[in-house]
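About this split. The held-out portion is used to measure sequence recovery: a designer receives only the structure tokens and must propose an amino acid at every position. Recovery is the fraction of positions where the proposal matches the reference. Here is one held-out target exactly as it appears in the evaluation file.
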């Protein structure tokens, strides 16, 4: 819990709100945990694992590197690319991979 609080500090929204990303209300209405988990399945495993370990398992970049046996820079770039891909899937700018049955 202490690590989580240190990473996600409470900061009031003030004049810096123009720096926040522009997200349409429609996108917010479509997002829920089940949707995110489903879309997470459409991200390549190499990118999904670090993203999951960071946001769901609450591991640090260094810990993720140790678990996955990859360098710290690779952890950072894979998380960044996974977030971009997830945003694209949520936004509908790319189509999800069709699951074979």
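Reference sequence for scoring:
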């Amino acid at each position: 819990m202490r690590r989580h609080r240190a990473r996600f500090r409470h900061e009031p929204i003030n004049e810096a709100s123009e720096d926040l990303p522009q997200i349409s209300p429609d996108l917010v209405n479509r997002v829920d945990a089940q949707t995110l988990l489903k879309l997470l399945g459409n991200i390549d495993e190499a990118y999904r694992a670090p993203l999951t370990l960071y946001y769901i398992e609450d591991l640090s970049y260094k810990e993720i590197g140790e678990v996955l046996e990859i360098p710290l820079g690779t952890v950072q770039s894979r998380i960044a690319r996974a977030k971009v891909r997830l945003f694209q899937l949520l936004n509908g700018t790319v189509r999800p991979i069709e699951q074979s049955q």
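Annotator remark: The chain has a mean pLDDT of 79.
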